[in-house]
Amino acid sequence: MALDLQMPVLVVDDYKTMIRIIRNLLKQLGFEDIDDAADGTEALEKMKQRRYGLVISDWNMEPMTGYELLKQVRSDSGLSKTPFIMVTAESKTENVIAAKKAGVNNYIVKPFNAQTLKGKIEAVFSE
Amino acid sequence: MERLDLMANMKQENVARIIDFLEENKNREGEVSLTDVMHLAEVMSGSMFDFLSTVQPAVTEELTAIARQITSMKEEISQLRANDMKTNKIPDAGRELDAIVEATENATNTIMETAEEIMGADTSDPEAYQELVSNKMISIFEACTFQDITGQRISKVIETLRFIDERVSSFISHLRIPEDLEAAIEESDEERRKRELILHGPQHVGEGVSQDDIDALLGDAQSDIDKLFD
């Protein structure tokens, strides 16, 4: 799968400031089409209406967490192939393993820097 | 005969105290506090004291000890200053934390807006650009002053937690509650959600796994990950 800077990216986080930070970092990396959602439910609705090339999601949100969103996406035949990166403060081994088992493409622990985000996005699209 | 008369008088006097207590509290509609129960226990044990002192000194001694313990517990409860905690200390700490969230959010927004303005600025005129960057840097320094105020607010919250800790610890110590005397707590819906959805929240430095550890976990074959469960 090739990295296409024109593809729409969905950023999911319940903290507006974090959405703003990721949005700015993505813009710096050259992405132009960036959308956002405040939790898993809103993200899933948006994903059913539009085909996103990448989802970058927080874990801890209400009512639907990023972990639940990941499982819903992977169980939906129309969405299951969407690249999914978890960006979260949840840094216990069991979280990483659960995300891996649920089908996450990469996992970034907060706080993170632009280089890490860039590296993980590139890694996902070089798989 | 004299003894029976004395008992009859004492009973009448004590029964009157109990009736007075019940009369005073008859309109409570089931709202009974621990203090009410202890007060009633005090009145009841007092009534028993008069009666039993005439027939059984050993029981009297026991009842005296119980009455002393109840009085001591009342003193300990008053030292807890539970109402002060509930109506002042805890709400004040909550307000301080809300103010911290608001201040950090405002500062972050100011810093981000300023950074966005610098990033979007026209660089064709180097002098104008340099002046803009200098001015914006001052805005960023100003926004960072939130740190001093939030530090003071956090100190007040820590003070409240220390206040609660000291009083609860003293209460437990005076009641001589054994460490293993903990009632089983039924898991709340919120706790169950956190367990099922693996919500631990941020970890302290050294507690969680690092980005390098995560990369290693994700890079490993599934069998290597499975070994972690062995």
Automatic annotation (TrEMBL), chain A:
<dbReference type="GO" id="GO:0000160">
    <property type="term" value="P:phosphorelay signal transduction system"/>
</dbReference>
<dbReference type="InterPro" id="IPR011006">
    <property type="entry name" value="CheY-like_superfamily"/>
</dbReference>
<feature type="modified residue" description="4-aspartylphosphate">
    <location>
        <position position="58"/>
    </location>
</feature>
<protein>
    <submittedName>
        <fullName>Chemotaxis protein CheY</fullName>
    </submittedName>
</protein>
<dbReference type="Pfam" id="PF00072">
    <property type="entry name" value="Response_reg"/>
</dbReference>
<keyword id="KW-0597">Phosphoprotein</keyword>
<dbReference type="InterPro" id="IPR052048">
    <property type="entry name" value="ST_Response_Regulator"/>
</dbReference>
<dbReference type="InterPro" id="IPR001789">
    <property type="entry name" value="Sig_transdc_resp-reg_receiver"/>
</dbReference>
<feature type="domain" description="Response regulatory">
    <location>
        <begin position="8"/>
        <end position="125"/>
    </location>
</feature>
